[in-house]
Write a structure and sequence with these properties.
Layout: H1 31-36, E1 58-66, E2 69-75, H2 81-92, E3 103-105, E4 109-112, E5 127-128, E6 140-143, E7 151-152, E8 156-159, E9 177-183, H3 185-192, E10 196-197, E11 200-201, E12 207-216
Antiparallel strand pairs: 1-2, 1-12, 2-9, 3-4, 4-8, 5-7, 6-8, 6-9, 10-11
């Protein structure tokens, strides 16, 4: 079991958009990352994700309101029901409200979901990964995880381009998608273009709210 709340999601080489976003399972990150981490207003912790979705009868979408604008995502509840359930549970609890996109690598990914803003935080529990054959294409969203771990917390990344090196076909670490951006990709691109120090935005980009909508299939 990976300890919830202790995920760091730092790339081996954050300047290389082709490198894999391999996290390490430690509570600490580099001095530079700690010094530049933006404080967040949210440190909610949970023992587990309550069951809040019905993947057999309902479809789910979510709207992100950010300091750079809004974007909408479609959740793959049928392909990754436990992952989507965790995301929806956290969103309904207001977990993501006030968090920042703590990692931005232009031409690769933007990453969020960490209450510490340093790449080392999580929700207090972990969820087992759900293998699927969805590709990490531009706009597709996958969970970040610690190295070769088979479970994850609350951090996720949005692919800024097609990233086949992260796919299920990769012989190394695989990142399984659970959602995709359906509108507002221009906002995602705007977030990816903010000025950074290393891979951390100099001017924090904040999630103001995440609203989940469900409808019958």
């Amino acid at each position: 079991m990976v300890v919830g709340g202790f995920f760091t999601t730092r790339n081996r080489d954050t300047g290389d958009p082709n490198s894999v976003p391999t996290p390490t399972a430690t509570a600490s990150s580099s001095a530079t990352a700690d010094a530049s981490a933006s404080p967040t207003v949210n440190a909610k912790q949970f023992a587990k994700a309550e069951q809040v979705i019905d993947a057999t009868t309902k479809d789910y979408t979510a709207t992100f309101k950010t300091s750079k604008g809004d974007f909408e995502i479609k959740l793959y509840a049928d392909k990754a029901p436990n992952t989507v359930n965790s995301f929806v549970f956290l969103a309904q609890k207001g977990y993501f409200d006030g968090l920042t996109f703590h990692r931005v690598v232009a031409g690769f990914v933007i990453q969020t979901g960490d209450p510490t803003g340093r790449g080392s935080g999580g929700p207090g529990y972990s969820t087992a990964e759900e293998p699927n054959e969805i590709a990490n294409k531009r706009g597709v969203i996958s969970m970040a995880k610690a190295g070769d771990a088979k479970e994850f917390g609350s951090q996720f990344f949005i692919n800024l381009k097609d990233n086949p090196s992260l796919d299920y076909t990769n012989p190394g670490t695989k990142y399984y998608p659970f959602a995709e951006v359906t509108s507002g990709m221009d906002v995602v691109d705007a977030i990816s273009k903010v000025r950074v120090s290393g891979d951390k935005p100099v001017e924090p980009v904040t999630i103001q709210s995440v609203t989940v909508t469900e409808k019958a299939k």
